[in-house]
Amino acid sequence: MNALEITNLTKEYKDFKLDNVSLRLPSGCIMGLIGENGAGKSTMIKLIMNAINRDGGEITVLGKDNRADFKVTKEDIGIVLDETGFPEIITAKQLNAIMKMTYQNWEEETYFHYIERFSLPGKKPFKDYSRGMKMKLAIAAAMSHRAKLLVLDEATSGLDPIVRDEILDIFLEFTRKEENSILISSHIVSDLEKLCDYIAFLHKGKLIFCEEKDRLLENYAILHCKKTELNGLEWSAIKGKRENSYGVDALVDRKKVPRGMNIENASIEDIILFMVKGVDK
User: Fold this and answer.
1) If we measure between CA atoms, which residue out of 185, 154, 133, 31 comes closest to residue 83?
2) What is the pTM of this model?
3) Could you list the pLDDT tens digit for every one of the 281 residues in the chain?
4) According to CATH, what is the number of the domain 2-213?
């Protein structure tokens, strides 16, 4: 079963359109959602959570239409948004009492395990938390009610590298259970390259690609060559290029580049940046 299925999803505003997006997140996997500010990542997450109405398309979450009795499905979803939304006067200890009444499967012991692991103060009001502390509290809550799907919007932003690395390990532990999956949006591409099985790239409301990370790294390379050499390649081999005083750097399909040309491995960040150049040219 797929943890998440999105088919021809469309949402239109006056100055923005999420345009006919389709993707699949298999159970037990982690998908990274990448895109510039305003690309549509948060809009898509709101649509998945049925927080706003769609204009077209279908969304299935954990095998169920997200418009049909979604209150029940939400029991199995852990959500962390860029703006956590907890009341400013609340403490971590008080949040536990609230969540006990919110989720049927709330696990107090698990919650306080994460509070201790993240070194969060139990009695300090939320308004006095740093951004990083706020995100850690939201992650602790999301991980403490036996969720099968985590939906994370910039969940690692504002965290120092050591804590961020620890949280990525926690997410990896979560998906060791075959029924557990994660959709995570982030601007920190290196985190997603380390963490994810799949990468989905949104640009100006359009899904540029949704592919297995390893296949992306296998299929694409950076070519360093002269302009005349690049012009000799078939057009479909070139996905984006950047000219400089020495020649051209281009993202290319490895299979369509003759042997002997100067290519090197591309990172996920390379692929995204060059793809944008290709789309916008």
Assistant:
1) 154
2) 0.92
3) 899 999 999 999 999 999 999 999 999 999 999 998 889 999 999 999 999 999 999 999 999 999 888 889 999 999 998 777 888 999 999 999 999 999 999 999 999 999 999 999 989 999 999 888 898 999 999 999 999 999 999 888 778 888 888 889 999 999 999 999 999 998 889 889 999 999 999 999 999 999 999 999 999 999 999 988 998 898 999 999 998 888 899 999 999 999 889 999 999 999 999 988 764 55
4) 3.40.50.300
